[in-house]
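[scheduler] slot 2 assigned
[scheduler] job type: sequence-to-structure, two independent chains
[scheduler] chain ordering preserved from manifest
[runner] begin chain α
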Amino acid sequence: MTSRSFPAERTALVTGGGSARGIGRALAHRLAAQGWAVAVVDIDGDAAASVAGEIAAEHGVRAFGARMDVGDPASVRDVVAKVEQALPPLVGLANIAGVSSPTEFGDVTVAEWDRVLDVNLRGTFLVTRPCCAAWSTAASAGWSTSARSPRSAAAAPTPRCPTAPPRPASSG
């Protein structure tokens, strides 16, 4: 594998970044504080746009906020294309969007189960795919991370993008 470095101007896409108390919002701010342009996406487009505005004002970096349904291939494709047009090269991805069910397991409906899987599993897959495509054409390495427990991360397949550095083995 060819060793590549991040470009001076670079973008990270953060899913689930619109939540007022979420990991995605905090991570988006942290990346911006380190000089990254940040694309904040969330099922709540108004919240994502608001966080992007906060980031631009507070950190002086370029930021983009939009509604993205991570479980919908068309939504993902459209928003990633807009991010690639609006911001520097997309080389970082944080799959933070996630939902859980407050319902006792025995009472979970099939529709509720499908919603959890669409966001937590299918969404991670759908968002990572176009980012891998962007990394394979960029002159830099790309990275991806997901907010999942070590147990679920160990069971999930590791994305093998053409330019992504290998992910260290999880312990736990």
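[runner] end chain α
[runner] begin chain β
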Amino acid sequence: MADLAERAAAPVHGPGRAHPVGLAAVLFVVEGVLTWYKRNWRASAISSVVQPVLFLLALGFGFGSQVDPGPATAGQSYVVYLAPALLVATTVQLAAFECTYPVLGGFKWQAQYTAIAATPITARQIVSGHLTWVMLRMASSTLVFLAVAAVLGAVTSPAVLLSFLVAVLAGMAVAAPVTAYSATLESEAPFSSLFRFVILPMTLLAGTFFPVEALPAWIRPLAWVTPLWHGTELARGAVFGGLNPWAAVGHLAFLGAMFAAGAVLATRFFARRLAR
């Protein structure tokens, strides 16, 4: 991280200019996290790759062997029906994790954000670098999951690549507001409530494992306001077809608005905390 600070402070835009160009500053932040990750990636391999594959095996082929193809599964076998939704759910969970403890640690434990802020890199660039890293992290894990799912026969159409893009977008719609929330905390204690009462229920009730229409009518609106439901609808619509174009626009607008609002708040909260 010291090397990152030195490089960020070095002239990169001509003699006597110490301020890095916007994109360069963002990439410095990404490079710092990537350097750490290359040494510690094994610690996250189980949660980001192995765990979703086990879910696909257990639910797709285990439980799914008892589910006949029909309207509830878009006419597909259950494992094929599950794959794009599980892709989105896994990406959302990964985004939530990458934007909780690592963000608080950047302020409180490792304090790398404080070190970076001592260079000409701004709070906005730190947030942009963090979110860029999260996007790359999600994309790489999602591609590995897709490759394994294809080998297992859970992928039947090249259109699943569209669900990959949707999964990353849904993950970013979660990453930005969670980053903003984490930047306001002084303790990790609230994270357990976030995962227990927000992330887990969203995974179970937002249409990942069964259609939302199977839920009681009073609880469906709770699913409809989650980014995971919007991402799941888009992902399945991209793979299986039948998604109304205006509905697709609405889903994309919702996810985009969540990301934009979260990014604005994250930048504001980072700047406020780093100015203390």
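[runner] end chain β
[qc] chain β: The chain has twelve helices and no strands.
[scheduler] slot 2 released
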